[in-house]
Design brief:
The complex is a heterodimer of chains A (338) and B (709).
Chain A lengths: L1 H13 L15 E6 L2 E4 L2 H11 L4 E4 L12 E5 L2 H9 L3 E6 L8 H56 L5 H7 L4 H11 L9 E4 L11 E3 L8 H15 L3 E4 L7 E4 L8 E7 L2 H5 L3 H13 L3 E7 L5 E8 L8 E3 L8
Helix pairs in contact in A: 3-7, 4-6
Chain B lengths: L3 E6 L3 H4 L36 H8 L19 H19 L2 E4 L5 E5 L4 E6 L9 E3 L2 E4 L1 H9 L4 E4 L2 E2 L2 H7 L4 H15 L3 E4 L8 H5 L26 H6 L3 H18 L19 H17 L6 H12 L8 E5 L16 E5 H13 L12 H9 L3 H9 L14 H18 L9 H16 L16 H16 L4 H7 L20 H16 L15 H19 L3 H5 L8 H6 L3 H12 L9 H5 L10 E6 L15 E5 L8 H10 L5 E8 L2 E10 L10
The chains are: A alpha+beta (338), B alpha+beta (709).
Protein name (chain B): tRNA-splicing endonuclease subunit Sen54 N-terminal domain-containing protein
Keywords (chain B): tRNA processing
Pfam families (chain B): tRNA_int_end_N2 (PF12928)
Chain lengths: 338, 709
């Protein structure tokens, strides 16, 4: 927590010099489950760990249990960018895994464990339901008592009227002898266990018996192409500087750069990674387009490329509306610009 | 340039609000979020993945409201307050994520995953049934993406061999590959926002003309037709209904259903996993599918208990008992002296494959399918043919006639049969697209391409547009084949395509297979082109079918032809493209000499029929079948009414881009003009887990303003 604070506050002043201090005092590694070539996080604790301590954001792609039919807030799993997965592996924060039995037919032991767990869950529910019912009865006891008394009175009245027309109110009141405890006892005697078909069943997001499966290390080849290597280098560099990064496809870039946690802050830069050759070949049209998009979304457009030493160089472009010709000004070529 | 394809992003914002119970102005929310503390539920997990019973019961009464996502801050100040805000938002989000998905047991629909048919069979359908799933011969089934989505939303429990699947497992078991995963993401993205997403229904095309006269509301009911998923027992259940009505419409409808079925059942890459125990056959699903088709046809004529394939297989195993348990067997040819007198082996050894048999059973029931070009691919055999072409051959050649094979079946020694089988196997290899078992792979691919190409590229192709959607059977067949190739054999396609024109059938190869029985499509078209090739020389004059006596007549006839062409291929073609067409054909309009009709044709040509104005025919054949983009889903917007039994025309059609490769302009043009009903084509691109949607719609640029002067 402390380290995170410091990185955040120092981001703007001394971006490059701030070390990649990640508060991962825990030694446990995040398990990135690889499915069809994509890295996923299925455990909410891992997600928490990534968000809080690793400055990894990812992208939620599942449904929210509370409200499945909307797309504003999504739920587990968390899909990671390929760069994030590679970085996690390289920094020793996580590992890519695959589960051997995942795609096979379940073994008998798995099935047994599952039904056993579900059975236990049911038993717990029976107990819990009984407890809840008792609490409910206790809470409502006074009301029940009051109701019963009224009923009793009416009945007595009718009876008395039948027997003799005279009113003997006082004695009737005394005849009603039920107490609160009696009512509770009576209700508890009626209590029945939760029927089988009314039990609550969980629909699992994460595999419930993951610890029973054989975990295999899964090779993670990313980055393979030249473009991917540039992208990964840029991602690494920015991450080490203490920024939060997400996919930039929304704004036509490779990454979006956030100064703080994307849960609170807007991104402030759009990064596009290019190779040095592409940079020299021009592409003014693209550049103007990208800068205009960035300007209208109040962001900075940044071109990132590798120089001859393999260091990442950033060029940021601003588009000034005041100037007649849409001219890009090479503001600064330093990392501090960000 | 008359057409511009505009690419613009689709925003279905209205839909995304769907289902939010609490939609308030975001600013109404107190900014001082940090003040309220969030309680993290204590995790008393008895087993790691299981939530305890107490917890589940407590969750039952949880607050179901979801606060709208709060505003973000532009500038990071790093103040204490901001820290607290971040903290609280993270906590809040975590609590939301931690909640389990629950359902009461008696209210939770259940299904079972069937790996062999790649579907989820519902044992207890739920509310979702009215816009999801499909009725099949084995009961109500869901497509994989539908099932995964329902697991994700906690509305369905899918059991795989007795164990309920979690979403994590379902994504790796039910979804086949990365592209399928992308398709699922698109599906879930659209469905979450309230759209109804169904597999593409190729039969739902109504031209503007058909809609105007309300023909779309009177489509034939498809209630009797069920999707065949292929368990043997099931294929016999509706024999009676089928044999009762052998008319073509039912068949055509079934063919369309097959097309709808798409990749779920016709998935050539997925081997049948539970290799049928001791049975020798390990077949691909696609072949199974074809086989099924054949059963369907076979059972119409005769109520036999065993499928033709099964009979053949038993026969073969009787002959070669050693073959039980294996798929392919090699048999060496004995010394020449030991062979029967009329047998000429063309190879030293033959392979017998079960798969070939399967094709064979298809072949038999379909009667005649000749692919002329595959035989000359087998170079070994060609050599031996040249050597052994002697007098004896003629007699043998007559015997090895495909059609008479059955008559003389028993008079053959089994070497011949074996040889036949080898031939058949060659056929099956060109037929089947899923496996290349042998090294001369490019060869058979060429042949497969070749045959279908020639069919599509027929110069006299005046078949109507609808033909491509299942009117003619072989057309559908080869199209399916090409589509599955399209999906699964990407890298090979270039090679096959470039070779296509170079390999024309050589005359001497014709001897190998008897072509006295032409496949139907060849019988129809082949002779004419042949005749043109041989008997006539190229002429600059347009050949007319009618007899003319003077230049004037000739010119008139030419003008008629031009007018007809213009009517049939210009903007007016929409009139004749649908199932229902005007009583007058283009030819009739253009040929009648009376002035009123001539003016009709000119009127027709002048009015705007809201169709693509370019000559689509011209480039339709330029894009090879396998390079065309495949329409995957039909989408109905949340506001649209949708009935599964009688679906209306969709609001959008979705294409999912594969591997991030952008479509070429040609592909886009082909896609936008493939359907004549003006339904918007939406292209879905999945990148880093985010779904972006783009529409392709033709627009006409507004004419420039005329200056006042």
């Amino acid at each position: 927590m402390e380290a995170q604070n410091s990185t955040k506050s120092t981001t703007r002043e001394e971006g490059p010099s701030s070390p990649s201090k990640v508060a991962c005092t825990e030694t446990r590694k995040v398990q990135v489950a690889v499915n069809h070539g994509q890295g996923y996080i299925w455990d909410v604790r891992d997600v928490w760990h990534l968000w809080r301590n690793c400055r990894m954001v990812g992208c939620l792609v599942g449904s929210l249990p509370r409200h499945p039919h909307q797309s504003c807030t999504l739920g587990l799993p968390l899909r990671l960018l390929p760069e994030e997965v590679t970085l996690l592996v390289e920094e020793g924060l996580g590992e890519t895994v695959r589960y051997k039995e995942m795609e096979e037919k379940p073994s008998q032991t798995l099935k047994d464990t599952f039904s056993e767990c579900r059975e236990r869950c049911y038993k717990e529910q029976v107990q819990e339901a009984a407890i809840q019912r008792r609490e409910q009865v206790k809470r409502m006891a006074d009301k029940i008592l009051e109701g019963k008394r009224k009923k009793f009175l009416i009945k007595q009245k009718e009876k008395n009227e039948e027997v003799n027309g005279s009113e003997t109110n006082g004695s009737v009141e005394e005849e009603f002898t039920l107490t609160r405890e009696d009512v509770i006892q009576e209700e508890e005697a009626k209590l029945q266990p939760l029927p089988q078909h009314l039990q609550i069943v969980e629909v699992f997001t994460r595999h419930p018996l993951l610890d029973q499966l054989t975990t295999e290390r899964c090779p993670w080849p990313y980055p393979t192409t030249q473009e991917e290597r540039v992208r990964y280098k840029v991602f690494c560099d920015l991450w080490h500087q203490g920024h939060y990064l997400t996919s930039g496809i929304k704004f036509g870039g490779n990454f979006l750069v956030y100064a703080g946690d994307p849960h609170l802050y807007h991104a402030h830069a759009i990064v596009r990674c290019v190779r040095e050759q592409q940079l020299r070949q021009g592409g003014e049209v693209d550049l103007v387009a990208a800068t205009r998009v960035a300007a209208s979304t109040k962001k900075t457009f940044v071109l990132a490329s590798l120089d001859n030493d393999g260091q990442v160089r950033y060029r940021s472009y601003h588009w000034f509306e005041e100037v007649e010709e849409e001219e890009e000004e090479n503001m600064d070529e330093n990392d501090e610009e960000l | 340039m008359k057409i511009m394809i505009a690419v613009r992003e689709v925003l279905w914002e209205a839909g995304s609000k769907h289902g939010l119970s609490c939609v308030g102005a975001p600013s109404a929310r107190p900014k001082l979020m940090y003040a309220h503390s969030v309680v993290i539920p204590v995790q008393n997990m008895s087993h790691v993945g299981f939530t305890s019973g107490e917890e589940l019961l407590r969750v039952r009464n949880r607050d179901q409201t979801l606060l709208p996502s709060s505003e973000k801050v532009d500038e990071a100040m790093g103040s204490w307050m901001e820290e607290k805000m971040v903290e609280s938002r993270l906590q809040e989000h975590r609590t939301l994520l931690e909640e389990p998905k629950i359902a009461r047991k008696d209210q939770l629909p259940t299904g079972e995953w069937l790996p062999e048919s790649q579907m989820v069979k519902l044992t207890r359908p739920g509310k979702f049934w009215h816009h999801m799933g499909v009725e099949t011969d084995i009961g109500k089934c869901l497509y994989p993406e539908e099932a995964v989505y329902l697991i994700d939303t906690g509305e369905l429990e899918v059991v795989y061999d007795g164990l309920p699947l979690s979403l994590q497992q379902a994504q790796s078991v039910l979804l086949q590959d990365a592209h399928h995963l992308d398709q699922y993401l698109v599906y879930s993205h659209l469905t979450r926002t309230g759209c109804k997403v169904v597999r593409h229904q190729p039969h739902l095309i109504f031209t503007k003309y058909e809609k105007d006269i309300r023909l779309d509301q009177h489509q034939a009911s498809r209630k009797g037709t069920k999707l065949k998923l292929g368990s043997n027992k099931a294929s016999h259940t509706d024999d009676s209904s089928q044999s009762a009505s052998q008319c073509k419409p039912v068949d055509a409808a079934l063919e369309e259903l097959y097309a709808c079925l798409g990749d779920a059942a016709v998935n050539p890459l997925t081997l049948e996993k539970n290799g049928a125990g001791s049975s020798v056959s390990t077949v691909t699903n696609s072949s199974k599918d074809k086989e099924k088709e054949s059963w369907k046809k076979a059972s119409q004529s005769s109520q036999e208990i065993l499928s033709p394939h099964e009979i053949k297989r038993r026969e073969l195993i009787e002959m070669f008992p050693t073959m039980a348990g294996s798929e392919i067997m090699c048999v060496d040819v004995e010394h020449v002296d030991l062979l029967p007198s009329n047998s000429i082996p063309s190879k030293k050894s033959y392979r017998i494959s079960i798969e070939a048999l399967e094709y064979y059973s298809v072949y038999e029931t379909r009667h005649h399918y000749h692919y002329e070009s595959q035989s000359h691919k087998n170079r070994n055999r060609k050599e031996s043919w040249n050597h052994s072409r002697d007098a004896r051959w003629d007699s043998y050649g007559r015997h090895s006639n495909w059609q008479s094979r059955d008559d003389s079946y028993h008079s053959y020694g089994y070497r011949e049969r074996e040889r036949d089988r080898d031939n058949r196997w060659q056929h099956s290899r060109s037929q089947r697209d899923s496996y290349a078992w042998r090294e001369d792979r490019s060869g058979w691919q060429d042949s497969a391409n070749d045959s279908s190409w020639r069919h599509y590229n027929d110069p006299d192709c005046d078949t109507r547009f609808r033909d491509r959607f299942g009117d003619s059977e072989h057309d559908r067949w080869s199209r399916d084949r090409m589509e599955s190739r399209d999906r699964y054999s990407g890298p090979d396609y270039d090679m096959g395509f470039s070779d296509r024109h170079s390999d024309s059938p050589q005359p001497q190869d014709r001897d190998q297979i008897d072509y006295s029985m032409w496949p139907e499509w060849k019988r129809k078209r082949r002779p004419r082109s042949r005749q043109q090739g041989r008997d006539s020389y190229p002429s600059f004059m347009v050949k007319l079918r009618t007899r003319v006596t003077s230049w004037k007549e000739y010119k008139n006839a030419l003008a008629e032809m031009d007018a007809k062409k213009q009517l049939a291929r210009g903007s007016t073609r929409v009139l004749w493209e649908g199932r229902t067409t005007p009583l007058l054909t283009p030819a009739a309009i253009s040929s009648s000499a009376s002035s009123s009709i001539t003016s009709l044709s000119s009127t027709l040509l002048s009015c705007n029929l809201n169709a693509a104005i370019t000559d689509v025919e011209a480039f339709r054949n330029l894009i090879p079948q396998e390079a065309r983009m495949k329409v995957l889903y039909d989408v109905y917007l949340p506001t649209a009414t949708y009935k599964k039994s009688n679906p209306p025309s969709p609001n959008k059609r979705i294409v999912v881009i594969r591997d991030g490769s952008m479509p070429t302009p040609g592909q886009i043009l082909e896609l936008t003009s493939r359907f004549v009903d003006g339904v918007v084509m939406v292209c879905a691109v999945v990148k880093d887990g985010e779904v972006r949607l783009y529409t392709f719609s033709p627009i006409t640029l507004p004419p420039p303003l005329q200056s006042a002067s």
